[in-house]
Every structure is written in C-alpha cells, then in structure tokens.
Specification:
The complex is a heterodimer of chains A (427) and B (259).
Chain A (H helix, E strand, L loop, with lengths): L2 H23 L2 H11 L1 H11 L2 H13 L5 E6 L6 H5 L5 H4 L3 E6 L3 H9 L5 E5 L1 H8 L8 E6 L1 E3 L1 E6 L15 E4 L5 H12 L9 E4 L5 H7 L4 E5 L2 H7 L3 E6 L10 E6 H6 L1 H19 L4 H8 L9 H9 L1 E3 L5 E3 L4 E3 L5 H13 L9 H8 L2 H10 L12 E3 L5 E3 L4 H6 L7
Parallel strand pairs in A: 1-2, 1-3, 7-8, 7-9
Antiparallel strand pairs in A: 3-11, 4-11, 5-14, 6-9, 6-10, 12-13, 15-16
Helix pairs in contact in A: 1-2, 1-4, 2-3, 10-11, 13-18, 14-15, 16-17
Chain B lengths: L1 H26 L11 H13 L12 H32 L1 H14 L8 H8 L2 H26 L3 H9 L4 H39 L4 H10 L3 H29 L4
Helix pairs in contact in B: 2-10, 3-4, 3-6, 3-8, 3-9, 5-6, 6-8, 8-9, 8-10, 9-10
Chain lengths: 427, 259
Amino acid sequence: MHGSEASRDGALGRAVERSIEYAVFGGEVGRRAFIARVGASAATAALASAFPLAAARALAQDKAGLPEKKDLKVGFIPITCATPIIMAEPMGFYKKHGLNVQVTKASSWAMIRDLSINGETDATHMLSPMPLAISLGVGSQSVPYVMPAVENINGQAITLATKHKGVTSPAQMKGFKFGVPFDFSMHNFLLRYYLAEGGVDPDKDVQIRAVPPPEMVANLRAGNLDGYLAPDPFNQRAVFEEVGFIHLLSKEIWPGHPCCAFAAKREFASSAPNTFRALLSAIVDATQYARDRGHRKEIAAAIAPKNFLNQPVEVLEQVLTGVYPDGLGNTKTVPDRIDFDPFPYHSMAIWILTQMKRWGYLKTDVTYRKVAEDVFLAGACRDTLRALGYKAPETTSVKHVFALGKTRLFDPDRPDEYLASFPIRKA
Amino acid sequence: MRRDRLRVAVYSMLIGAVLLGLWQAAVAGKPAGKSVPGPAAVAAAAAQMLAHPFYDNGPNDKGIGLQLAASLGRMAIGYTIASIVAVSLGVVLGLSPVLYRAVNPYVQVLKPISPLAWMPLFLYTIRDSAQAAVLVIVMSSLWPTLANTAFGVASIKRDYLNVADILMLSWPRRLVTVILPAAAPAIVAGLRISVGSAWVAIVAAEMLIGGTGIGYFVWNEWNNLALTSVIFAILAIGLIGVLLDAGLGRLSRRLSYQE
C-alpha cells in the first residue's frame, strides 16, 4: 500500500467508524459522552464487538480503489529485461499490492503479442517499440495499447561469433548475418543505428533476421549467424558457452536507452482501472527495488530457476552486477550494463517512431508527439512513483544524447530534421 | 520361428549397444557441459526427471509426466475430431465416384501443407492458443484418414453392396453392418498414419505456442541449452510414438479379414 492511498484509506476508515458511532450512540453528544468515559480506542473496540467495523470499512474502500480483478496473468519472455515483471512474483511485489499474479512464459515476441491481443494474458512484457507499432497497426492488427512503464534501460549488447575476434568496427561487418529478437525492437533499431553510423547500410550490406532470443546462441554456434544484438542473458550465455564475445554494450550507443517495457491493452487499463493501478504500482515498486545494485545478487537467485529464466545463476549475476568476462579474456566492470528505470519519456517514443520511419516500417505520416502521449503513459508512471515515495521527473520529454564516435543529440521537438540528418535511410 | 525371434532380439540388443558405445566414445574426454552429453549424463537426467514425473511448480515448471499428459490430451482431442470428420467425409466420397473426383483436387492441394503453416491464421481468427494448437492437430491427422477411408469404401466389393440392396437394409444398418466393416482395414491404416503425423505435429506446435506440453518442454530446455533434458525428451517422444502406433497396429490386426 503506498503513501497517499494508505492515508486516504485511513481517513475513509475513520469516517466509516464515526458514522456508525453516530448511528449507535444517537448523535455527537451521546458519542462524546461515551468516549469520555471509556477512551477513544476502547470505544471503537466496544463498538467493534457489536458491529462488524472491519467489514464496513472494507465495503467503503471497495468503491474507493480495490482491484476489480485480482487473479491476473502476465506474459513474459525469459530474458533479464523482464526482471521486474518476473521477480515481482517470487519476491511478493504483486501480493504486496493486493494482486494474485501468475507470470506466464511465452516462446517468442509474436506469441507475446498474440497472447495479449487475444486476451490470454491481462498485461505483458513487451519490447518498448511494440505497443507503439501495435497501436498504429504496423506489423500487426491495430489495437490501442498503453505502456505505463519501461522495465529496463541499457541491458543489450552486440555479440559476435568467436571466429570474428579481429572485428572492431562496423566497416568490417559487411556481409554479416545478424540476429535481432523482433522487427519492432530497440535491438533492431540500435543495431541499424550503429551499423549506419559506421557507414554500413543495414538493408543492403548485411542481413538482419528476427530470431527468438533463446535460439540465438545455438545459431551462433552453428554458424547461421555471425552475430546478434540481443537481450541478456544471451550475450553472456554465448561467452559462457565459449562461442562468442561481447563486441559492444548497447549503452555505448545510447546511454540510458529504453529496452523492454510493461504494456497492456488500453481496454484493460480503462475497464479495470484499479487493477491496472495496482499492477503498475507492483511493477514500479519492483523496478525501483531492482534499481538498487545491492539487491542484484538476490534478484539473480530469485529469477534463475526453471519456472522463470531457466539459466545458470552465474550468468545472471554477471549480467545484473555488471562484472563479467567479455569473451576476449578481459573481465569488465560496468555497473550500469543493465539498469532499471520505469519512466517512459515521450521523447523515447518519438525516437522510436523516427526510426520506424527511417527504416520504412512506418509508411504513413503520424504526429509523433500525439502517438507518444497516447501510448507512453508518463503521467501515470509519475503519479505511481510519487505515491510510492520515489522521485519522478517533472518533464516528460528530454533531449537524448547518443554516444559512439561523433556524439549526436536527439531533440524530440525536431524529429523531421533529425531524420533528415542521416545519410543512410530508407525513407 | 522361435530361434528367429531369439536371433532378432540378440541382434537388436547388439545394435543398441553399438550405438550407445559410439555415442559414448564420441563424447568421451570432452569437458562436461560444453559439448553434447553422453548416455551416462542423459541416464542420470532421466533418473532425476522420472523420480518426480508429476511435480507441479507453477505454470512454467512441471514434471515430465504432466508435460507428456498435456500433449497427449491435446492430441486426443484434435485426433478424435479429425478422425470423426475424416471417416464421415471419406465414406461419402468413397460411395460417390463423381463427388470423389470433384473434391479430390482440393484435398490434393490441402494435403501437402504443413499443419504448422495454419498456426498464424488460426491464432488470428480463433484468438485462443490452446484451440489453435488443437486445430493444428486436426489439420495434421485429417488427410491420411480421409484418403484411406475414401479409398477403402470405394473399393468395397460390389457384391457386398448388392447383397445389402437385395436385403433392403436401411441406411444406418447398411453403414454399420456392411460399409464400415468392409472398409475397416483401410480406415485403420489411415488412422495409424494419422496418429503418427499428429504426434509429430503436436511437438512442433507446442514449441510455437508455449504453455504446458512436451514440445514446449524441449524448447524451454533448449533455451537453457540443457541438452541432457532435450535428449531425454526426444527419447520419450519416440517411445510414446511407438506405443501409439503399436496400439493402432493391434486394432488393425483385429479388424482385418480374409475375403
């Protein structure tokens, strides 16, 4: 239960008690006389023995905010990006917010999309471009989605097969076959961005295929892929299996980029607003818990079992703590290799939309900001963060700084100029 | 005859031992966990999984027995639906040569389509992954039964049908006492092929849709690159396939007749 709701519920509870006392004692005077004689708490206790106060309190609160639906299913793909969604079950964050959630593993992103659209899951783990694409009906039937929270920031990497140990720049990657988890993924957009910044046209000079993350290591080993930009643990797993090395962390492309997200159909959010609010509270609460680096080892142990990620704890620890072997003989320490920050800036959505446009996925003209505001619920996330007692950003749109050789600035107020500034693009 | 049987058993066991030996020799000396596991490792994993085949640890972690049961259940539903449809349709087509030739081109086009190719369409239209998987089974086990039933009914001896005409049997009686028994060997041969293809399809379908089932179990273990579990699951799938086939083989021996 978070701050303001707790105090509001407390006030409501007292109001209910008081009106019952009025009814029992016949008005303010009788009530005061009784309390003066026995004391306030004893008066309440005496009353409670004759009247089910707790029940009356619960009944009143029902109208004020108890979840409409408590038993929920939330879908996830077994990757570390889903950490808050998954850990919230074994570590009790859903319970804490009054929900009985079963997290359900799915086999691919297309399946995650269909399970959610078909209503087999109530809410779901998604790649942050997916709710935008589905809402616009790009690569899917058009269903309005909302995305009230980002799961993780950073947390991806480019892994190359061991035979490419000498490769250090995109120019050497011409002719490579790359895997990304899904067309509408930050992975795809960041890989394309990275290659294009290095002068490589991702549509002409290399091949990029959608491969479900769990199949990536096997494909790398078999030589079907030269590399991939994938979510963890599959980058670290390739190092663990001695079939690949980590070429570049995605945070070296865009420090603090959004990765995976928590999303639901707009219809779910509007038809069960209290459930949606409680679910969002649980997710944001878990995300903030994961943000604390001191908790990472404990989380790695909680999400490693078969029921969740089904991965060696050692690999998950290397990912979550950011102390890891890179497959080239070095041990690196990058504490923010993966980080957790729920705030869905509208500017992130606008960047994603510019890239969907850039690579020809989005063929029509849309008002970027309007789509961003409809889908990325920054306001709901801010309210939830504050209600839980965390700091939340004032502004929902910021300029994002991209790293790599020459630093680029993304100004969300000038998306068209930004798009026009790229020499390599489809549109 | 008896000596032959003994020799078959001995040869069979020898072949098995040689295969196991080759497998063990191929993986010997390789570091554990970094290459394909050997028979000993698979046996250890099998013992562990078979010790608790029915544990239930939430929707994403169930014992191998529950996984196989889920797959068999799903298959039973799809296979039953497919068999009823295929046998009914097969009888109608078998009795009417004109209709048979009219429908045949469509059957020929539909038959070679991999049942999994239907999956996206089913998911989109039915909007339920469990039912979509069952429909994939239906698609996989429809055609062999249909084709065999139609062929079996079409090749019933005219004499039998003429006798039925003379006796002026009612339609239901004619179906139950003449047509189905006469075509039974062909129908069961079709059912036997169908059960094999249904079992092949369910594993692949479950890999796509997820949830509970032996196919998804394989996928899930692959996700963890736990090849011992994958190999054990492959063996279990094969064994169940053999049992299903043997069951229908026994049925076909009971229903066969000499003209």
